[in-house]
Amino acid sequence: MKQRNIFAVWLGLPIITLGIYGIVWIYKIHDELNRSYPENGASSAGSALCSVLFGFMTLGIWPLIVLIKFGTGLTEAQRRAGRQPSFSNGVGILLLIFGFGPLYYQNELNKIATQR
After folding, report:
1. CB–CB of 1/109 below 8 Å?
2. Rounded CA gap, 74 and 65, in Å?
3. How far apart are CA 32 and CA 74, in angstroms?
4. Rounded to whole angstroms, how far apart are CA atoms 51 and 39?
5. 6 Cβ contact partners less than 8 Å away, ≥ 6 residues apart
6. How far apart are CA 91 and CA 70, in angstroms?
7. What is the pLDDT of residues 9-48, one digit of tens each?
């Protein structure tokens, strides 16, 4: 897994690329988590990308399900990396609502990246 600067993921690159980096980031984190820990049960990168692009058709239910599955996979990946799981789906969703989700998610992913 790749360690990324949390502030670049949260604000810098999405502003510079007019939001495109956010979509690319979602694809990349799902792909990296699935490649590093294929048995964790997280959603595929393609499914995550489609849920972001077409989730409005399901009134946000599909993206929410993908997000919860990703969070569960992230918790399991932390456990398998030898860390005490520190990720919380509730906190992640709450922070996403207020716009700080990428900070939290990337910080938790960086914890796994430093363990490997």
Report:
1. yes
2. 14
3. 11
4. 21
5. 102, 103, 106, 107, 110
6. 14
7. 999 999 999 999 999 999 999 999 999 988 877 789 999 9
